[in-house]
Design goal:
The chain is an alpha+beta fold and 292 residues long. It is 14% helix and 25% strand.
């Protein structure tokens, strides 16, 4: 009997990991392979609407319910997808806003927004917000208004970016705006809204002269379009620690806010270079998962 009890306790300890701050909620240790498992380098930040690494045992997002302001951490299902069943059950017929988008890199670089009017949406009137059939964090505000959606990087800025891979889109309504990544001080990732992903005059030289792939296809940053359908944007800046800094998504300084239904599904940034094969594997995985 003693052996059985010990074996059961060992199994329980190996099969589950308790998340700090949630004494009564257990997150299952994931099984299977995830997109970052075969990558040799650890990212500076990795946020997504799905699980990215078998080593990550935390939550995906923290959401706020519109009718009463209650919040809840939402994890993943057994397949590593966002636990939409729990999410929709909690939100009910209301709107669901993203308060925290948890960093899966282990570096604690969560994307956060504690001010309600600035929070992006994940559920609208009880219906999951999606893009290409997968959950999507939507920035729905009107351009250049005083009320816009954005999420800040916890702690210090992401100052060194050797390889950035982002799954996002900009709003399709006339007058939409937004930068791929933003900053409260700089405009290193400056776009030319409605025409170009990067601005020839204002984008930093490190970004503008970087190596860019869109959905896995090599593209010059000088001709990359301001995309209004979901894409995987993979950019290796020319100089990783010069002119690549960012600390917010959804806004840049006091204008150029992502708006009119634009938003994000996944953001991964590495502080050092990854191999061509690793980049291609990530892009291929993203194209399949997000139906690009």
């Amino acid at each position: 009997m003693k052996k059985i009890i010990i074996a059961s306790l060992l199994y329980f300890g190996l099969a589950h990991a308790q998340v700090a701050g949630t004494p009564y909620i257990l997150q299952s240790v994931p099984s299977g392979n995830y997109v970052l498992d075969a990558v040799s380098q650890t990212p500076s930040i990795a946020v997504s609407v799905r699980k990215l690494s078998k080593n990550y045992t935390g939550y995906c997002i923290q959401v706020r319910r519109s009718n009463d302001g209650a919040t809840r951490d939402i994890g993943f299902d057994a397949n590593g997808n966002l636990d939409t069943a729990t999410l929709l059950s909690f939100i009910g017929a209301n709107d669901g806003y993203v308060r925290i988008w948890y960093d899966q890199s282990g570096n604690g670089k969560n994307l956060t927004q504690i001010t309600s009017i600035y929070q992006p949406k994940i559920v609208m009137a009880g219906t999951l917000v999606t893009s290409n059939g997968q959950p999507f964090i939507a920035f729905y505000a009107v351009p250049s208004s005083t009320v816009y959606n954005h999420m800040d990087v916890s702690g210090a800025s992401i100052a060194v970016n050797a390889q950035v891979i982002v799954v996002n889109k900009f709003g399709s309504i006339t007058g939409s705006d937004g930068f791929l990544l933003g900053d409260y001080t700089y405009f290193y990732w400056h776009s030319r809204p409605s025409t170009n992903l990067f601005h020839s005059s204002f984008t930093s030289s490190s970004v503008y002269n970087g190596t860019l792939y869109i959905n896995g296809v090599a593209t010059s940053p000088s001709v990359a379009p301001f995309h209004t359908s979901l894409k995987t944007i993979s950019l290796a800046p020319q100089i990783p620690n010069t002119g690549t800094e960012w600390n917010v998504i959804g806004r840049d300084r006091t204008s150029h806010h992502t708006s009119n239904g634009g938003g994000y599904s996944e953001i991964i940034s590495f502080p050092v270079s990854i191999t061509t094969n690793e980049r291609e594997q990530i892009e291929f995985n993203q194209k399949n998962y997000f139906n690009l």
